[in-house]
Amino acid sequence: MSAATIPQNPLLKGTGLPPFTEIQAEQVIPAFQQLLKELDEELATLEANAQPTWSGLVEPLEKLTERLTWSWGIVSHLMGVKNSPQLREAYETVQPQVVQFSNKLGQSQVIYNAFKQLRASDTWATLEAAQQRIIETAIRDAELSGVGLSGEARDRFNAIQMELAELSTKFSNHVLDATKGFSLNLTTKAEVEGLPQSSLSLAAQAARAAGEENATPENGPWRITLDFPSYSPFMQHSTRRDLREKLYKAYITRAASGELDNNPLIVRILELRQELANLLGYKNFAELSLASKMAPNVAAVEALLEELRSASYDAAVKELAELKAFAATTGAPEAQDLQHWDISFWAERQREAKFSFTTEELRPYFPLPQVLDGLFGLVKRLFGVNVTPADGQAPVWHQDVRYFQIADETGKPVAYFYLDPYSRPAEKRGGAWMDVCINRGKINDNGATSVRLPVAYLVCNQTPPVDGKPSLMTFYEVETLFHEFGHGLHHMLTKVDYSSAAGVNNVEWDAVELPSQFMENWCYERPTLFGMAKHYETGEPLPEHYYQKLLAARNYMSGSATLRQIHFSTVDIELHDRYLPGGDETPAQVRQRIAKTTTVLPPLAEDSFLCAFGHIFEGGYAAGYYSYKWAEVLSADAFAAFEEAGLDDETAVQATGRRYRNTVLALGGSQHPMEIFKAFRGREPSTVSLLRHNGLLQEALNEVTQL
């Protein structure tokens, strides 16, 4: 590529909406060669001229880092939603150089000293609380980035950061490839017995995509994959126990053998994290992780997990016994010996019998367009904002991606977001997430000041439209969409104009899930549910009896669901706190040991769940998975404020909603989350609301009386 064409590289635009339609994988390497060279020069200039003032230090530093995050953010985003061999190769080539530059920036002694001088200066007292918190965080982050290291220790620290980044990318790719690499191709009606119409349609569509041009939902062939919209309904509904076993075992052994084996990567990641923590003066990685979180220490995390474990364990034991008894009433031969691949199936049959409805029956009432209407109606009610389609105003990476605008009460735009709702197993990683596209911030341009509006990516993996029908969502998929939208609101409704503390930036990781989990509660609230639950063909609202059954079923198996999260959280903390790399136990053995008190059906010997535990080995949840439960205490207590005000009192709901918007959502990372929570709630959080919402309060009280 000649020098003359380089400036046209879309990845170097540096501001505004990403030009997705113009971006090609072959542009990544030249873009970053040029960008990193320029940023290196900018950093040298900043170090030569750094002043211990807001405008002489923080503003130019923010400008510099934003150029990097704009370009790298786009490439990382495409790795998650439009993965390809060419993009992977480019990403893996550039990633070490990005890590190298980030280390250099994080370890700049000059910048670190300037921040410390600023904190010690007379101007400190004149800064806003948000500015002070940004500076305090910058000092802490520099220390956690190894600014205090020199010589061999610094070189080793940087080498570890580099290797960890490569390992997490490799881990993620292995899971994607292993998920994509397995399929069950079924050809007879007997093999698909029990499957609902939506599953048959999806399986036939998958078969057509794989080359079986004549595949139909009625006559097959059908292709079942490990992608969640395919896997989960099969496990719930297939009457073929042998096929459920086969699929389950494929699912729990993903990325656990052969070329895609993540076991050695896990050991190496844990070794490197331990070494990294030691270099920075911490006993282990859990201590290092908690240095920037809301939880004060490992003991506090374990105390919460134990409180929730003891409240949910007996409930989970009882739930399994009830499931066996139920299976026995049907004469099922496996009733006395239920295995992992039987649980979803029998739980679904028992749910149908207990509450006389199936998850499938509800799908026609939750077409995506209707669910979006309900969601947008709710945020208008609570927060006074209007969401409207803005398709065509932004380039997108796939034809199914939508673009929306959020405006305030006066009609003035305050934010935008992309929505990428459907599963695309060939190129998109599983799960659902919100990511930052553009941060809110104050822009000074030629003496004129304006506010740059935030833009979010909302990504889900729900059932795609099949056979001319819209995307008909399971209730779980509805909750997932509300969850991610809660993250989006946190990013988009911020009022903070300093981008380093706007929205989710600078928010302690274990408080980040508060706004997302808070939104899930509204899926069960009458006006919200009836605002969106309408039959996609007839427009009929959801019959009342279904609503009552949904409410009744809300805490069905909640002991087991809570215990499952406690299991994951405890394994994560143990691996980063007490586990010794190269010691007597392997990570898998640690997990099996913890399973003795955190599962009621022990994992199979070959269960390699850790090999696909992306949250802690590729995402940001290492020694932080407990954050879901920590934040759920906050979110349940936040929702309880609306219950106490009276969910039937529309004036009270709106007043509480505005208070929530003006504290939890507006203040972002400008204050400590505990202060923000107290500003909203008037007190510190309590676990009572969470246990009550999960139907486990009595279990917890029983525990207390026994103590």
3D structure, described in words:
- The protein has 707 residues and is an alpha+beta fold.
- It has 27 helices and 9 strands.
- The strands form 3 sheets. It has a 5-stranded mixed β-sheet with strand order 3-4-5-9-6, with helices on both faces.
- β4 and β5 (413-422) form a beta hairpin.
Unreliable residue stretches: 1-6
Helix content: 55-70%
Portion of residues in beta strands equals 5-15%
Looking at the structure, what is the overall shape? globular
How would a crystallographer describe the biggest sheet? Answer: 5 strands, mixed
Please report the number of helical segments: 27
Using DSSP, what is the number of strands? 9
Walk across the major sheet and give the strand order: 3-4-5-9-6
Radius of gyration: 26 Å
Mean pLDDT: 95
Distance between the termini: 73 Å
Structure classification: alpha+beta
SSE blueprint and pairings:
Blueprint: H1 28-49, H2 54-81, H3 85-106, H4 109-120, H5 129-144, H6 151-181, E1 183-186, H7 197-209, E2 222-225, H8 228-237, H9 241-252, H10 263-279, H11 285-290, H12 298-329, H13 340-355, H14 359-362, H15 368-383, E3 386-389, E4 402-407, E5 413-422, E6 433-438, E7 441-445, E8 448-452, E9 455-462, H16 475-492, H17 514-520, H18 526-532, H19 544-553, H20 558-577, H21 587-598, H22 614-617, H23 627-645, H24 650-665, H25 673-681, H26 688-693, H27 697-706
Parallel strand pairs: 5-9
Antiparallel strand pairs: 1-2, 3-4, 4-5, 6-9, 7-8
